[in-house]
């Protein structure tokens, strides 16, 4: 281990932990230990592996408050949300405990024998996680990787490692193969570089920015690693005039300002049919102003701070003098990396606010005149992660849902993620799918076996 990483509470700017940063040797040793752990794991019975995943879920449930408070202080996430997210982590392990003995193959009709397929584990999986939903996103990858018979090395983001470190300790205290799940803290350019190039790592599950995802792809190419990449987004929330407008308005602020906008699925482009634009804008601003911004440890807080001073600077860079932004709330003065929500109505279609992922509390509301135009605008982005359609016309809902180039889309809802359903991106939002049974494909190789029945 080399330097210490000072972890800061973004709501107070206090140092809340000092974490050792792994160097190359530590990261390499973790991979080598993971190879041994995987051999032991795959020799265990199906029922023992199922019970192990249940035990992980159980220990997370027993420590929900502790893990939620770590997440709250580390990310600046409101405690009520953090609690819900950690509950989701336990659910994720419970779900994949049930999958362990349901990883099926096919029998395929062929001449001269019997042909069958098996899904074999890959070996060592490296999970590289972002700072916005630290333990939930790590769990979406750790749980299916383990269920499919792999071992895991997890690298949390430097800014927010605390919940993942504690999770690693809780898992290590269970009666599981030693080093089955290891947490290695450290910088992306050091630990990430080892994990993405080490010949004994079979797969990288990376969640982060599109730019870093491209670097991960390049590094992983040398050893032909399997990849799941969950990257950036610029999702559209399309509101048609025939929608239940009050429901759409009520749901919209949370879908862009939740987690203070630091959400890959943030619907930061709200496309509104021009006939209802004024009503939508007025309602949206009113609902946003009703959100409580402040102490993340208070149960009534809706929005906490941004994760760091540097990130607040990046987000603020979108608010140039030529941007006409409506301030829709009051943030505390500081200490803390606070930023109140901003709403920009009808921005220039070529502007950064419309095109780039902001990852902060800035929403663009953009008018459209026809279904065709709405679809064209929704697809006019390099990203394709999530999105929503608000309409009372079932035919239109299905037409638009099929036409938008995005991995997940909700009708009359702004939800994106369910443990049972596949989640992932089109275009430069990445590839591969997390969650649901689809995730298992990403953690297994398909093997074909032919047995001759010739006499
Ligand atoms: P980031 O790309 O800066 O970092 C993500 C992780 O990659 C961190 O753990 C970091 O240490 C590591 N890393 C950095 N350089 C690396 C390298 N060269 N090799 C290997 N690993 C390296 O992203 P972030 O700032 O933590 O997260 C924000 C981004 O993540 C946003 O773009 C957001 O949209 C995206 N995100 C996507 C999803 C999704 O599911 N699609 C979910 C959450 C966040």
From TrEMBL:
EC annotation from Swiss-Prot or TrEMBL: 1.2.1.3, 1.2.1.8
Enzyme class label: oxidoreductase
Keywords carried by this UniProt record: Oxidoreductase
Enzyme active site: 230
Positions of the Aldehyde dehydrogenase domain: 6-449
GO MF annotation, one: betaine-aldehyde dehydrogenase (NAD+) activity
Family listed: Belongs to the aldehyde dehydrogenase family.
Protein's name in the database: Aldehyde dehydrogenase (NAD+)/betaine-aldehyde dehydrogenase
Organism listed in the record: Nocardioides aromaticivorans
